[in-house]
Amino acid sequence: MRVAPIKRVVLLVVVTLALGVGLLRLWQGPVLPGYRIESLPLVQTLVASGRVVSVSRAQIGSEITGVVLERRVQEGDQVEPGDILLVLRADDIEAQVRQAEAAIAQLETTTRPQAAVAMARAETQLEQASRETARRRDLILRALLATEVLEQAEQQEILARNALETARLTAASLAPGKAEETVLRERLQALQAQLAKTLVRAEAAGTVLTRNAEPGDLVQPGRVLFTIALSGPTEILAPFDEKNLALLALQQNAQVLADAYPNLPFPATVNFIAPGIDPQRGTVDIRLLVEPVPAFLRQDMTVSVNIETGRRDQAVAIPNDALGSVQGSTAQVLAVRDGKVQRLPVTLGLRGLAMSEIVAGLAAGDTVLADATLALADGSRVRIAALALPL
Question: What angle do CA 381, 382, 384 make, to 5 degrees?
Fold first, then answer.
């Protein structure tokens, strides 16, 4: 008969204990996720999307109007200075070049010798006219001829002398290196230059990016036929928010990931910071030098850039999600001390992707809530469910 009272006592004790534990837990507050602050290595980075660019590009076109006879390169081909990219039909220009060459040959083999013969004939005629004038003058002195006959001889001598001078001038203009030959050779060179323009060549080494002409196309000056990425260092162009400008510096190291090859990161180095800000986007352009260049990298490929802007061997660090009201280098945290919540201001140092350095306000070993946005009053009691720090 004593069993029932014992059961009731036991039940009463269990209920009392449970109620006590419940009241204790209620007094201690809710269980909330949090972190224990530690001192650990920290790297500050900036991240942005960019694209692969060459140092410069060349747009190749034709200097003359013509019909494409042959295209010798396509996208991806490597070219060297002087390589022929495109051949235009040149029948009419070739015919004009042959005509110019024939004119020079005619000058050398026919016109110039004929001028020499004409000058020799004029010299002979002058000598004959001079002798005739002298003979008639002698006869007049002996009163054997009328004066009018002498005047006729002198007139013939003047005409012969003028003819010789004309022949000399003609021969001089036809001499090697003189006016006539210079005009013909300049015309030939101009036509040969036109003929050379029917071969569209690469002016510098590089890689063909685009081609916009096929055999049979009519091309004209001003039309871009090929775009060539000139050989030289490969760079990454990435715009960063201007608020991060103070963190950027030349020669900073970076890790780059191509969207197409996310498991193959490669290194790069900051080698240019734009002197101006894009007012529409509020960004500053950064160029990073890639060396060595991965074999899979392609022009205009989209990449993600992670620039290392600072490093600490040991730093008091806190996960970024535990920071609230971040403004510049200041923020707030919900610290837990003696089981009570305390909203504290902290000063930030390096900012990593997952962790940030605490310069002032917290120390290693302190505990903070994982969510700094919780609406908890100072002094509220909470219990911490410890979370692992993000790597």
Answer: 150
Using alpha carbons, select from 311, 325, 318 the residue that is nearest to residue 364. Answer: 318
Pick the CATH number of 29-45+312-386 from 3.60.20.30, 2.40.420.20, 3.40.50.300, 2.60.40.10: 2.40.420.20
What gap in Å lies between CA 152 and CA 156, rounded to an integer?
6
What one-character-per-residue DSSP string does 229-292 give?
EESS-EEEEEEEEGGGGGG--TT-EEEEEETTEEEEEEEEEEEEE-SS-BTTTTEEEEEEEESS
The model carries a pTM of 0.56
CA atoms within 13 A on the CB side of 139: 15
Residues 257, 307: Cα–Cα separation, whole Å = 12
Summarize pLDDT for 169-207 with one digit per residue, the tens: 888 887 888 788 888 889 999 999 999 999 999 988 888
**Distance separating alpha carbons of residues 142 and 135, to the nearest angstrom:** 11
Place of tokens 């410069």: 56
- 57-88+198-230: CATH class: mainly beta
Q: What CA–CA distance (Å, rounded) separates 384 from 82? A: 73
Do domains 29-45+312-386 and 48-54+231-309 share one topology? The answer is no
DSSP letter at 390 equals: P
Where do the domains of the chain lie? Answer: 29-45+312-386, 48-54+231-309, 57-88+198-230, 91-195
What CATH number has the domain spanning 48-54+231-309? 2.40.30.170
Reported as a single tens digit per residue, the pLDDT across 93-131 is 889 899 988 988 888 888 888 888 888 888 888 888 888
279: left (phi over 0), alpha (psi -120 to 50) or beta: alpha
